[in-house]
Amino acid sequence: MKRYLPFVIVAVVALATLGSGAILYRAKRPILLTIPQDKIIPGKGDTASMHIRGEPDAPVTLEEFGDFECPPCSNISSFLDDLLKEHHPHLRVVFRNFPLKQHKHAYEAALAAEAAGVQGHFWEMHDVLYREQAVWSKASHPRALFQAYAGTLGLNVDQFNKDLEGEKSEERVDADEARGASLRVKSTPTLFLNNKEVGPDDRTPDGLRKIVDVAIKGKSPESPTPATTTTTSQTPTATESPTPTATASPTPTATAKPKKK
Fold it and tell me: Do residues 250 and 72 touch, judged by C-beta distance below 8 A?
C-alpha cells in the first residue's frame, strides 16, 4: 500500500487544484445586470423624454450609459451609428448621461448636449463632443468651445448659453444619473441590450453585431418573443469596461457634478 501512497497524494493534489481553479474561474465571471420590469423603457408612445437614435418603435433596444469625456465611449459611438444603419428599422439606441467623477469636464459636457437638445440638436452635439473630445477635454475652460460648437451647428448661441445654465438641462442629466445608479451602473460605457447588460466579451464590434443579430432574429414574426426577465441581479464588482476595439476604460466611480460658474 505504501508504494501507492505517492500516486494517491499526487492525484488528490491534482483534483484539489482543478477544483480551486474552477471555483476561481466562476468567481471571476462578471455578474451582469438586468433592468427590472418597472424600469423597462416603453416600446411605443412615451419616448419623448429620451434621446433615441433610430426607429423610435424598434423592437430591439440598445441602451447606453455614456460619459462624453470617456475615450471608450467615443470609440463605441461611431460603431453604434454603423450598427443602426445596418439594422434599420429594427434597432434603436437610447443614450443616457453618466458623467464620471474623475472627468472634470464631463458633467458640463452633458449639460452642453442637453442644452443643444432643447433646440432639437442633441445628437448633433453628442457627435461633435465625441469627435472633438481630445480638444475640449484638455481645455482649462471648455465652455467657450461648447459655445463654438453650438454656433457651428447653427444653434441660437444666446439661447444655448441660457439652457446650459438652466434647470431643464440639469434635470435631464441628473435623471439619467439617477437611472444609472438605480440600475447599479458603475462604469462607462455600460450597455443594455433589451434590458440585459452586455458582457465584457461582447463589447467589441463583432460581439455587439452578433448579439444584436440574435436579438433581432428573436423579435422577428417567425420566431417566438423571448420572455422578459424581471428580477434584478447582484451589484457587479467595480471593473473597467472594455472599448469596442480595446479592453480598458476609465476607472468606474460615482458620478459628480461641478459647481456652476
Answer: yes
DSSP-based three-state secondary structure for 40? coil
How confident is residue 24, by pLDDT bands cut at 50, 70 and 90?
very low
Which residue range(s) make up the domain with 50? 37-103+171-218
Distance between CA atoms of residues 221 and 89, nearest Å: 14
User: What pTM was estimated for this model as a whole?
Assistant: 0.75
Report the C-alpha gap between 92 and 113 in whole angstroms. 19
Confidence check: pLDDT of 236 > 90: no
CA 224 to chain centre: 28
Give me 256's grid cell: 459628480
Pairing of strands 60-66, 51-54: unpaired
Number of domains in the chain: 1
CATH number at residue 50: 3.40.30.10
Residue 234 is predicted with a pLDDT of 39
